[in-house]
Amino acid sequence: MSKLVEHREKQNLTQEELSKKSGISVRTIQRVESGIDPKGFTLKALAKALNIDETNLIKQKPLITESGQKWVKIINLSSLVVVFIPVLNFAFPLIIALSKKQLNALTKQIITIQILWTLIWLTIFLIGNVINLGELGRDIGIAFMVILVLANAFIILRNSAELNKNTQLFFSLNFSII
């Protein structure tokens, strides 16, 4: 069912009533309801007549193709294999993404998250080695490193679950390093 049909039926309007209210022909409304995305004036007029945002009438295109979903999941989980080895946790997925030509918005996000995690991990590791806090400080540093590795494993697994459910990432960033 198209989004236009949903919104039209929610408001208990017939195609003819929507046509009169929007100034769009019944035939155009039928085309849109058959699956053609409205554009320009038609989109604005229908959205205004239904008192909804224009984006509510346009189909959302999936971020990845069905065949690419498999590779995105593999690229995400490949970080888990080397989660305890900084640099490899983003290099391994990057190599897979490049070799399989799957460097899309989702895989860039996955790799960016791993790059940031590696930078945080290395920064804390270097600070811990520069600041000598004795035996207790070393133990706290090791415990913190283990917590960071477990947190990264959680991020990878949570994103994997969300990819299976909604083909999107649970943890994502508003930017990409790659």
TrEMBL record:
Pfam families xref list: HTH_3, MamF_MmsF
Keyword Iron-sulfur: no
Subcellular localization(s) per the UniProt record: Membrane
Bilayer-spanning residue ranges: 74-98, 110-128, 140-157
Source species, domain of life: Bacteria
UniProt xrefs under InterPro entries: Cro/C1-type_HTH (IPR001387), Lambda_DNA-bd_dom_sf (IPR010982), MamF_MmsF (IPR019109)
Single annotated GO MF: DNA binding
Primary localisation category: membrane
UniProt membrane topology term: Multi-pass membrane protein
Keywords: Membrane, Transmembrane, Transmembrane helix
Name of the protein in its database record: Helix-turn-helix domain-containing protein
